[in-house]
Write a structure and sequence with these properties.
The chain has five helices and 13 strands. It has 237 residues and is an alpha/beta fold. It has one domain: Class I glutamine amidotransferase (GATase) domain (Rossmann fold). Strand 5, helix 3 and strand 6 form a beta-alpha-beta unit. The chain is globular, with a radius of gyration of 17 Å. Bound molecules: manganese (II) ion. The site of manganese (II) ion (MN) has 7 residues, from loops.
Length: 237
């Protein structure tokens, strides 16, 4: 059966000049086309009122949360660190409501990079606002300007995880984050770590949740493993 996949959109705040005075809600083409490899109907959910989340979730089978701005620390009760990047609280509020509604309605939820962090915050966890200020994290998790199609750091995947059913224990990923999971929310289990000890994936036993800290949408054209990840999200999560 064709799965309807709702991808929570981002907004180009700075797009006034390019789009003739208009703001634009969007999602990356690579993410849409990764889903279109399989039997899906991807739709973009424009940023809206949190009160609409339940109705949006009723229309979809799978919720996907993509990358982007830092999650506002307002949502995990911290003051902003001076190295916090751009935040966009209306997106956070809408996506937090979508995650909660998807769990209530037992829909699958997949988050990548910021999306993974957002799920953790929605469920009561917290983030490191800037890992580059913390000397214990020695691995480079911001690989730019190395291109996104190249995998740059290694992670270790737990052998009892969902990911281990199609990925090897020692696995290479790309990396574009300066934030990371700090306190993991109740009900989530870390299933992959970088060699410096950051959580690179989590799942839930109770709910249909998978989060990864890397960007599979930038990799699937080049790496079969990442096509398998999209297949898993669509067919098994
Ligand atoms: Mn990383």
């Amino acid at each position: 059966m064709t799965k309807i996949v709702g991808i929570a959109g981002n907004r180009v705040i700075e797009s006034i000049d390019y789009f003739h005075g208009n703001h634009v809600d969007y999602i990356q083409t690579e993410l849409i086309e990764g889903l279109q490899m399989f039997d899906t109907l991807p739709i973009i959910l424009p940023i809206g009122q949190p009160e609409l989340a339940e109705k949006y979730i009723e229309k979809i089978d799978i919720l996907i949360l993509a990358g982007g701005q830092d999650v506002s620390p307002i949502y995990y009760n911290e003051e902003p660190n001076r190295n916090l990047g751009m935040t966009f609280p209306p997106r956070d509020a809408f996506e937090i409501a979508l995650v909660k509604a998807a769990i209530r309605q037992n829909k699958a939820v997949f988050g990548l990079c910021r999306g993974m962090q957002l799920i953790n915050v929605a469920l009561g966890g917290s983030l490191f606002q800037d890992i580059n200020q913390l000397p214990e994290f020695k691995v480079s998790h911001l690989q730019a300007p190395t291109r996104e199609c190249f995998k740059t750091h290694r992670i270790k995947i737990s052998n009892d995880s969902k990911l281990s059913s199609f990925l090897p224990e020692s696995y290479l990923v790309n990396s574009y984050h300066h934030q990371a999971i700090n306190q993991l929310a109740d009900g989530l289990f870390a299933t992959a770590y970088s060699s410096d000890g950051l959580i690179e994936a989590f799942e839930s036993q109770e709910h249909r949740i998978l989060g990864v800290q890397w960007h599979p949408e930038m990799l699937w054209r080049y790496h079969e493993d990442d096509r398998q990840l999209f297949k898993y999200i669509v067919e098994c999560l």
